[in-house]
Amino acid sequence: MYESYYGFSERPFQLSPDPRFFFATSHHQRALSYLQYGLDQGEGFIVITGPIGTGKTTIARNLLANIADEKIVAAQLVTTKLSPDELLELIAAEFKITVNGNSKADLLRSIEQFLIGLNQQGKRALLLVDEAQNLPSETIEELRMLSNFQLDNKPLIQSFLLGQEELQDIIAAPNMEQFRQRIIASAHLRPLKVEEVKDYVNHRLAQANCNKEGLFPDDGFQVIFEKTLGVPRKINIFVDRLLLFGFLEELTIIDSDVINEVASEMSVELTGSLNGSALKNSEFSQQLVINSTENVENIKNVLREVEEILEASIQQKVKMTRYIDKLLKQKSREFAKAQSANANDIKQSK
Fold first, then answer.
1. N or C: which end of the chain has fewer CB within 10 A?
2. Is the dihedral of CA 330, 336, 339, 341 positive or negative?
């Protein structure tokens, strides 16, 4: 796609969390430091919360990728809407524990024997639970019970919980007092500030070996911040589209006018529009009465929004068609050049 045009070694703004592209703001570095502190302590729970797209999973991946201690055996859970029994089954599966029997007692016994076996090897288990806001309170309580597995007064397993803001409310419930007392550190991530957006974008470009200086002017970063509200995942989506647009239009500089144009194209295409205007739940939760003038107007507004979405989709298809056409022409030129080179080689050999 646009990688060769801009001289990238790879796409710098992929959505999949990649530890190589980890960018540590002060908040992210603090969260990572808490995780590392928890590792050093070898006990208790660490809780990291933050809005969607602020980098919680990236932090977890970064931690796992940089664990140099061979004494730590780590596993990560990403499917967390689980009952206590399902949680135990998934833990056993992730740690590749052989379970002898079908009862919960058999499952717990097998997990404990595995943890004791690690301890005898001088190792310990680390469990990272992503999207932990989906865990029912009784399942979080099961995690606390697992932390009771000890040998020589040392816990055999640690659990780190990463989740959206709702996780804070779950933990704050009165029946979670015993769990709260096991938390040794917590951190809450926030979106990036405008100056951090510039550093974040430049960092990812550098990681992809960008050889274009001044690809985004300084005033462009302010617009990117305004359109994405500093949320890293939205920045990735937005800047990836900016680079594709720049490639299609053969731009060497992506200025604020271009950024605003692309933002306008994407305003209704993405869930939670980039301009930060959120749909009000009340607009859709109220029961419609057809003979109400107000509700008839609401229906018209919804139809207009649908029309805008369809128009945006058509515009995107047109752009993709242009991109494919351009790519085919580029490949055709490369093929013709290769054919010409082969012909010259044949003539020289004769």
1. C
2. negative
Token pair in block for residue 236: 């990735």
Cα(225)–Cα(193) distance, rounded to whole angstroms?
Answer: 8
Question: Are 238 and 288 in a shared domain?
Answer: no
- For position 92, which CATH number holds? 3.40.50.300
One domain, residues 32 and 156: yes
d(CA 268, CA 334): 37
Say whether both 122 and 201 belong to one domain. no
Cα pseudo-dihedral 90, 96, 100, 101, rounded to 10: 20
Q: Is residue 261 part of a domain?
A: yes
29-70 confidence digits (pLDDT tens): 888 888 888 888 888 898 989 888 888 888 877 777 777 667
At 213, list the tokens: 């200086």
- pLDDT tens track for 211-252: 767 888 888 999 999 999 999 889 999 999 998 888 888 888
In the chain, how many H helices and how many E strands?
Answer: 14, 7
For residues 298 and 194, give the distance between their C-alpha atoms in angstroms, rounded to a whole number.
36
Residue finishing a domain among 238, 260, 278: 278
Q: CA 98, 104, 105: angle at the middle one, nearest 5?
A: 85
Say whether both 238 and 328 belong to one domain: no
- DSSP per-residue codes, 172-236: HSGGGHHHHTTEEEEEE--PPPHHHHHHHHHHHHHHTT---TTSS-HHHHHHHHHHHTT-HHHHH
Q: For residues 184 and 50, state if they share a domain.
A: yes
Q: What three-state secondary structure class fits 25?
A: coil
Split into its structural domains, the chain has a count of 3
Please name the amino acid found at residue 283.
E
- Using the structure block, give the residue that is written with the tokens 């009000």: 280
- pTM, rounded to two decimals: 0.67
